[in-house]
Structure formats: structure tokens, C-alpha cells
Write a structure and sequence with these properties.
Blueprint: E1 2-3, E2 12-18, H1 22-30, E3 38-45, E4 48-53, E5 56-60, H2 62-66, E6 68-72
């Protein structure tokens, strides 16, 4: 288990845990980041991550991406 920021570009990773306060976890869930979902880092821009989750591409700042813990898949 590691934060999403440590995952390399490409390859699907499975979300195993989301840390942080309820408000932050709820916001991430609204964007599609829920436990058991596959997420792929597609790029990095200025320290922020561009990720594909479900059928969308989302930009996350480093702080929010560090809250998403994944297993390599």
C-alpha cells in the first residue's frame, strides 16, 4: 500500500484506503475515488497528477493525491 503520488504513470492501481477528514473523503468519493475502484496515473503537471478514474480524467493536487492509498495492480 502506498500513496497515489508514488504510483508511476500507466498501469491500473486499486484504491484500498482514503485518508483525511470526512469532508475531503466525501469530496474524493464524489469525484469517483472509492475503495475498490481502479485508478491510473496518466500524467503529471507541475507536481499535480492527472488520473483516470471510472470514465473520467481528473486533476488532483499533490495533497489530495497523497490521501489516496493504492495497491499496485
Amino acid at each position: 500500500m502506498m500513496p497515489l503520488t508514488m504510483a508511476g504513470n500507466g498501469g491500473t492501481n486499486t484504491i484500498v484506503k482514503i485518508t483525511g477528514k470526512d469532508e475531503a473523503r466525501r469530496h474524493l468519493a464524489e469525484l469517483g475515488f472509492v475503495v475498490g475502484t481502479g485508478v491510473t496515473v496518466t500524467g503529471q503537471l507541475g507536481g499535480n497528477l492527472i488520473v483516470a478514474v471510472r470514465d473520467a480524467r481528473v486533476a488532483l493536487d499533490r495533497d489530495m493525491a497523497n490521501r489516496i492509498m493504492v495497491d499496485l495492480g
